[in-house]
Structures are given as structure tokens and as C-alpha cells.
Design goal:
Oligomer: single chain
Strand content: 25-35%
Bound molecules: adenosine monophosphate
CATH superfamily of the largest domain: ATP-grasp fold, B domain
Distance between the termini: 47 Å
Mean pLDDT: 96
Radius of gyration: 20 Å
CATH class of the largest domain: Alpha Beta
CATH architecture of the largest domain: 2-Layer Sandwich
CATH topology of the largest domain: D-amino Acid Aminotransferase, Chain A, domain 1
Number of strands: 17
């Protein structure tokens, strides 16, 4: 079976999940609710997703034998992180349907390829330029202007692999500091807020988006998500239409997140939207859907990759999701008695600064 083959799972069938973090854990829990089993593949013996499944494979992503056995144990494969090595995806896709199709990863693993893809769809991004040397950075600065953000093309997350370049900075020094050979320089966006759209696309091409989420970062890490975002309806409609266009163009199956900047309009005009990033997976900014919507992003993803119908999720109210990062988790007890709050503890080991340990959702009347 290859990834182009259509699958329809039956209750009792098994979903293989690459990655054993909190996203894999919440996907496995959602699968269980629908009568499906999950088998998690992760190299980390302390993976929080292992705690909620009966069958787990603890092996490296380059372990061909383990991947082959894993593929033979499951009925479809999905992933909880976007940096799945392409060789891993190929080995699995030769044996089982892998959804979303690993081709999507080629687009989303590289910021330059991703931005070119979005631009070709007629969707706006921050202005950007390819940079592969200190000399190239000087040329890009002349073209894009300052301030700007220099980002590695691959493997950036939570603000890692990026540097803000300001007037007076020495391009040679900035380039050396990023420690990469391929980067992009992006114009610094004076955004009024950051939003994301969590969209699901089924095997039949139906797209369902959740209400637009507004996201607040601290130290480059998502801290609070609020749904719905405080943006005009017309802007929300546009944001969802952009996510739908992207999902359709990728021939995507599953849940994806599209992160966007809302840029204030000049002279009282409506704000405009720039796409920042596509995450080909369930996303932290969609965690509010677990308690704040009739069907969560995790269940929606499982439905999509199982070949089942998508839900038309109903939002339960005004929802706020707060990440418990590092030592925040030690206070989980204080949320237990808070009216309208639901606590999610990921069961990870020791808290470390910047580590996502859990989250709390509070649902209030709209
Ligand atoms: P990213 O890794 O691209 O998602 O960036 C992480 C965070 O850095 C974003 O959520 C923004 O808060 C900020 N950021 C990224 N790119 C830009 C930009 N071009 N202009 C202003 N802020 C940015």
C-alpha cells in the first residue's frame, strides 16, 4: 500500500503515530474515543504518548527494521511533528498510507520553499529573500530593508534559529551567529496581533476550519490562545479562506495550522493578513478545541486520516487556553478548583524552562 492509496479504517484498526510528545498523546486519546487503537513510534523512552497506548515502538527514526515492523502493525501512519526525516517517511509510505502525504513535508520543512508556495497561491507573506552567505545578507538587507528577521530555512521552532536584524548591526556578525548555510531574510512585520487557523481536510476534499484563534507568545513560545480572535468578521472569513486554499493546494488530508500576522490597515482601513507559517499537524494553538468545541482538532485529524466524515465543530463559548510552561506545571492544583477550567497535564518528567508541560482551558459564556 502506498500513501496515494485511499484508506478507510474500521473501529478496532490501528493508527501509527510518529512522535511521542503531547500531540501524539492527545491524538492517541482521540483515536481511543472513536474505537481506534494507536501505536506510537518514538526514540525517547520517556515519551508522554507511550503512557496512553498499549503498543509502542521505541526506536530511532533511522531504524529501518523497526520502521518496517511498525508499518506492518498499523493500518495508517500519521505524524505529530513536521521534521520527520524524508527517508523515514519514504520507508513507511512504501508499506502503508502515510497521511498527510509526506510530499507536504518537502514544502513545509523549508521556509523558502514554503513562502514560495504560499506566494504562488496569491497569498501574501512578509517580503523575503533567500540568503546563503554574509554577502548575500547584505544584498538582502538592501532589498528588504531593516528591521528584518533572519531565519534558518530548516529546523526553526519557538523562536530558535532566528535573529532580528536592526539598523547598525554588522551583517557579518549576524550571519556568523545564526550558524547556518541557508536562511531567509524577512521584513519585520509590525503586526497588531498573531492569529492561526486550524483547518481539517478530508480524503474527499472537504475542508472544515475552526474559529480563528488569537495567539500571544512569551519568550517566543506560545503562552495564551483565545478563540474567537478579536478581529472583524470579514478578516476571519478571509483567514479561513486562505487556510482552505492552502490545504486544498497541498492536497492535504488531516489537520493543519496556518499562522498569520494581522497588520493594521492605514487610514482606518481594515487590517490585512500575512501568512507566517504552515504547520502540517495538529497545533498548540488548537488545544482549546479539546474543551472548547464539540469535536477537538485531535479527533478531527483522526477522522480525516481514517477516511471518516469530518465534524462541523460547535464552539462552546469564549475559550482561553494557557500553556503551562516549565515550573508553571507545579501549580496545576490551583486550576483544579477554578470554575470553567480544565487542566491537561502531559505527564512529562521534570519541568525545564521553556518545556511545555501541560495546559489549562477556561470556557466562558460568549
Ligand atoms: P516563526 O518561527 O516564524 O513562527 O516565528 C516565531 C515568532 O517570531 C512569531 O510568532 C512572531 O512573534 C515572531 N516573528 C516571526 N517572523 C516575524 C516577522 N517577519 N516580523 C515580526 N515578528 C516575527
Amino acid at each position: 500500500m502506498t500513501s496515494s492509496k485511499r484508506v478507510t479504517l474500521k473501529p478496532g484498526d490501528t493508527i501509527g503515530i510518529l512522535g511521542g510528545g503531547q500531540l501524539g498523546r492527545m491524538l492517541a486519546l482521540a483515536a481511543a474515543r472513536l474505537g481506534l487503537k494507536a501505536q506510537v513510534f518514538s526514540p525517547d523512552p520517556d515519551s508522554p504518548a507511550f503512557d496512553v497506548v498499549q503498543n509502542a515502538t521505541c526506536a530511532e527514526y533511522a531504524d529501518v527494521e523497526a520502521l518496517e515492523l511498525f508499518a506492518s502493525d498499523v493500518d495508517v501512519v500519521t505524524y505529530e511533528f513536521e521534521n520527520v526525516p524524508s527517508a523515514t517517511a519514504m520507508i513507511l509510505a512504501a508499506r502503508r498510507a502515510v497521511l498527510p502525504d509526506p510530499k507536504v513535508l518537502e514544502t513545509t520543512q523549508d521556509r523558502l520553499v514554503e513562502k514560495d508556495f504560499v506566494t504562488k497561491l496569491g497569498i501574501a507573506t512578509a517580503r523575503y529573500a533567500d540568503v546563503s552567505s554574509a554577502e548575500g545578507l547584505k544584498t538582502a538587507i538592501a532589498q528588504i530593508g531593516l528591521p528584518a528577521v533572519l531565519k534558518t530555512r530548516r529546523f526553526g521552532y519557538d523562536g530558535k534559529g532566528q535573529i532580528v536584524v536592526r539598523e547598525g548591526d554588522d551583517p557579518e556578525r549576524v550571519w556568523a551567529e545564526l550558524e547556518t548555510r541557508s536562511a531567509i531574510l524577512e521584513a519585520f512585520v509590525p503586526f497588531e496581533r498573531e492569529i492561526s487557523v486550524i483547518a481539517a481536510r478530508s480524503v474527499t476534499g472537504e475542508v472544515v476550519c475552526y474559529d480563528v484563534t488569537e495567539n500571544e507568545h512569551r519568550d517566543h513560545i506560545l503562552k495564551v490562545s483565545r478563540a474567537p480572535a478579536a478581529i472583524p468578521d470579514a478578516v476571519a472569513v478571509q483567514a479561513r479562506a486562505m487556510a482552505e486554499k492552502i490545504a486544498t493546494a497541498l492536497n492535504y488530508v488531516g489537520v493543519l495550522a496556518v499562522e498569520m500576522f494581522v497588520v493594521p490597515g492605514a487610514n482606518g482601513q481594515a487590517p490585512s493578513l500575512l501568512v507566517n507559517e504552515i504547520a502540517p499537524r495538529v497545533h498548540n494553538s488548537g488545544h482549546w478545541t479539546l474543551d472548547g468545541a464539540s469535536v477537538s482538532q485531535f479527533e478531527q485529524h483522526i477522522r480525516a486520516i481514517a477516511g471518516w466524515s469530518l465534524a462541523q465543530p460547535v464552539r462552546h463559548g469564549k475559550v482561553t487556553m494557557t500553556n503551562l510552561i516549565g515550573n508553571d506545571i507545579l501549580d496545576y492544583g490551583k486550576w483544579l478548583t477554578m470554575p470553567g477550567a480544565t487542566v491537561h497535564h502531559y505527564g512529562k518528567g521534570a519541568p525545564r524552562p521553556g518545556r511545555k508541560m501541560g495546559h489549562v482551558t477556561v470556557v466562558e459564556n460568549d
